[in-house]
Amino acid sequence: MNQQFLVKFVKFGLVGGGVALFDAACFWLALKLFHNSVIARTVSVLLAITLSWLINRRFTFHITATPLSWQEWLRFALSQFPGACTNALVSVIAFHYVPYAQNNPWLSVACGSAAGLTINFLMANFFVFKRPPSQP
Questions:
Q1: Domain range spanning residue 25?
Q2: Above 70 in pLDDT, residue 52?
Q3: In angstroms, rounded to a whole number, what is the distance separating the alpha carbons of residues 56 and 69?
Q4: pLDDT at 16
Q5: Model confidence at 116: pLDDT above 80
Q6: Would 110 be classed as within a structural domain?
Q7: In the chain, at which end, N or C, are there fewer CB atoms within 10 A of the end residue's CB?
């Protein structure tokens, strides 16, 4: 694994941590505004996906030459779904089969988050923000 790939992975994780806090704050605020958890969660997720896309595009993957596009946003949003599913699955498996996690549910969430982060990064790196091969 090369150093540049590892740096991108760490940056992606840092962005994800910050966006998770933003998502929680948006959910809380939207819940106060709309008094409906489904609407509030929809709003917070859409805002979080958008912020994650914008920051990762610039900070993690250094995409500046191409203009923002809704197609790229949609590709990013859809690419994160397998990671979300992996996160949920690993969290549940860890909770049920790792004895320490049964008494410390945060550990099952951490395991799921690590697995989801890895899948989300790989999807973003290879399918959303991939660079065309260098011309000789």
A1: 3-128
A2: yes
A3: 14
A4: 94
A5: yes
A6: yes
A7: C
Task: Report how far residue 13's alpha carbon sits from residue 7's, in angstroms, rounded to the nearest whole number.
Answer: 10
Exposure class string for 23-38: b at 16+ Cβ within 10 A, else e: beebbeebbeeeeeee
What is the residue-wise DSSP string for 14-75? HHHHHHHHHHHHHHHHHHHHH--HHHHHHHHHHHHHHHHHHHIIIIIS---SSPP-HHHHHH
Residues 6+ apart with CB under 8 A from 26: 43, 44, 47, 48
Q: Is residue 134 part of a domain?
A: no
The reply to whether 49 falls in a domain is yes
Mapped onto helix, strand or coil, the DSSP state of residue 132 is coil
Residue 64 has pLDDT above 90, yes or no: no
| pTM of the predicted model as reported, rounded to 2 decimal places | 0.85
Domain count, the chain: 1
Span 67-86, average pLDDT: 94
The 10 Å Cβ neighbour count of residue 131 is 9
